[in-house]
Write a structure and sequence with these properties.
heterodimer; A: 120 residues; alpha+beta; 33% helix; 28% strand; B: 178 residues
Chain lengths: 120, 178
C-alpha cells in the first residue's frame, strides 16, 4: 500500500468465472488458473493506473471471490463502476467506505444502472 | 489522537477571530452559518446546504459530516463523511435528520471525547435546543462544557460540568496554550 494516502473507498472485483471459489489445494494443482488470476490482477492494476485521477491500488490479500481495490477518490470509484461493461468485468455490488471519524469500514449496497450508480 | 479542547460554532453569528480557536484544537462548524475559516469538521443535515458547502471554497478540506440517509446520496464526494451512531440518541429523543446543525456539532464534539468543549455562538433561545444542550451536558459528566458569550447568562449555572465565560476569558485560555 502506498504511504501517506488515505484510501477511503474499497470495491471488490470478481475473479474471471473459471477462477472463482477455488481452494488453495486446487490452485496448487492448476497453475493455469493461477496464471489467469495473475494476469487478471495485472490487467486491473494497469487499468487503474490509466483510469484513476488520484491514487488507487490492488490489495495483495488473497480472496476466493475476487480482488479488493482501494481508491483515494470517490469520483474514481464512480468512474470505475460505471465503466465495468467497457472492461468486461464484474464488480461485487457493495461499496466499503472508511469513516475518518470512527475509523470503521462502512458497507453499502450499490445498484449499477446504465445511467448511474445508486447507493442503498 | 484525542484532542483536549474542541470548539463548536453554533447557529448564531459571532464576532471573534476563529483562527485563534484553531490554536487549541479542532473547530466544528454548524452547517454554513459561519464561513470565516477552513474548519476541521462541519455538520449538516440539509441537502441544499450540503450542496452549498461542497461548492464553497471555505469548506475545501473540511470533513462534512451528515446523517446516513444524506450521506448515501453523496457517498462519492471525498469531503462527505457519515456521522457516527451517537450513543443515547433514543433516550435524548434526538433525530439526526431533523435536529439543528449545532446539536449535531455538539454530539460530534462529545463523541470525540475532549476534556473541554467550548460553545461559541450557540443558540439557547430555543427551549428545545436549550433542553437538549442540558440533557447532553448532564449525560456526559466526564466532559466540561464552556458556554462562551459576552451576554451574561445564568441558564447553565446549575450544572456541575458547565460554566459560562466571556470571549476575553476564552482568548486568555488560547493565549496560555499557544
Amino acid at each position: 500500500m502506498p504511504e501517506n494516502k488515505f484510501y477511503k473507498y474499497s470495491l471488490k472485483l470478481r475473479w474471471p468465472s473459471i477462477c472463482r471459489n477455488r481452494s488453495v489445494e486446487i490452485l496448487k494443482e492448476r497453475p493455469d488458473l493461477v496464471e489467469k488470476m495473475n494476469n487478471f490482477r495485472e490487467k486491473v492494476s494497469n487499468v487503474l493506473k490509466i483510469v484513476c485521477r488520484k491514487s488507487s491500488y490492488v490489495d495483495n490479500t488473497h480472496s476466493m471471490t475476487g480482488i479488493r481495490l482501494w481508491f483515494e477518490s470517490g469520483q474514481d470509484v464512480y468512474d470505475f463502476i460505471i465503466r465495468q461493461p467497457e472492461f468486461d468485468w464484474e464488480v461485487v455490488p457493495t461499496l466499503d467506505v472508511l469513516n475518518i471519524v470512527t475509523s470503521q469500514l462502512q458497507t453499502f449496497e450499490i445498484q449499477y444502472t446504465p445511467t448511474g450508480v445508486v447507493v442503498d | 489522537m484525542k484532542n483536549v479542547y474542541i470548539t463548536i460554532v453554533g447557529n448564531l453569528s459571532i464576532r471573534f477571530d476563529l483562527h485563534e480557536s484553531m490554536h487549541i484544537g479542532p473547530v466544528i462548524a454548524s452547517a454554513n452559518s459561519n464561513k470565516s475559516i477552513n474548519f476541521a469538521y462541519a455538520t449538516c443535515n440539509s441537502e441544499i446546504i450540503l450542496q452549498d458547502m461542497l461548492n464553497s471554497t471555505n469548506f475545501r478540506g473540511t470533513n462534512l459530516l451528515c446523517p446516513e440517509e444524506l450521506f448515501k446520496k453523496y457517498v462519492f464526494f471525498n469531503e462527505v463523511t457519515c456521522l457516527p451512531d451517537f450513543p443515547g440518541l433514543k433516550t435524548l429523543e434526538i433525530d439526526p435528520n431533523n435536529c439543528t446543525p449545532q446539536c449535531l456539532s455538539l454530539m460530534l464534539a462529545v463523541y470525540l471525547q475532549p476534556k473541554i468543549i467550548f460553545l461559541l455562538g450557540y443558540d439557547l433561545n430555543n427551549p428545545i435546543e436549550f433542553t437538549r444542550l442540558k440533557s447532553i451536558i448532564i449525560s456526559n459528566p466526564d466532559v466540561r462544557f464552556a458556554y462562551i458569550s459576552n451576554a451574561q447568562t445564568k441558564k447553565l449555572n446549575d450544572l456541575d460540568n458547565c460554566f459560562c465565560d466571556t470571549y476575553i476569558k476564552y482568548q486568555e485560555v488560547i493565549d496560555a496554550r499557544k
